[in-house]
Amino acid sequence: MILIGNDGVTDGAAKVVVDGNGHTAPVSNGVAVIRSSGWGLDLQGRIPITVTNAESASHIHFQTLVAGRTRSDYLQHQFIVVDSDFDGVEGQFAVQVELI
Asked: What is the DSSP letter of 85?
């Protein structure tokens, strides 16, 4: 599961491309939750995160997935996209957090 928080878009859509496959989820209240049963526990690499607002404007942000899992062998990554003015440039670097 990948959780994406976005401070610049409260409603819209978020898309990630992992291993060549696109996965899209709605952004609701600034958060998108993307799940796939096909991702292994060693999933890692640089991924594009495309955020689209309610007016259909899109920006791509890149984040790095690092192999990680919870104590229950459940893969979960969290990203914060900090682009409060939604100009495509993050105001600060996003942070990945692994829940344990």
From this structure: T
Neighbours of 92 (CB within 10 A): 9
Determine phi and psi for 49, rounding to 5 degrees. -120, 115
User: Beta strand 77-81 with 31-34: parallel, antiparallel or unpaired?
Assistant: unpaired
Pairwise CA distance, residues 76 & 78, whole Å: 7
User: Of 9, 40, 46, which Cα lies nearest the Cα of 25?
Assistant: 9
DSSP string, 26-83: EEETTEEEE--TT--TT--EEEEEEEEETTS-EEEEEEEE-----TTS---EEEEE--
Confidence of residue 13 (pLDDT cuts 50, 70, 90): very high
- What global pTM score does this model have? 0.75
Cα separation, 9 vs 26, in Å, equals 11
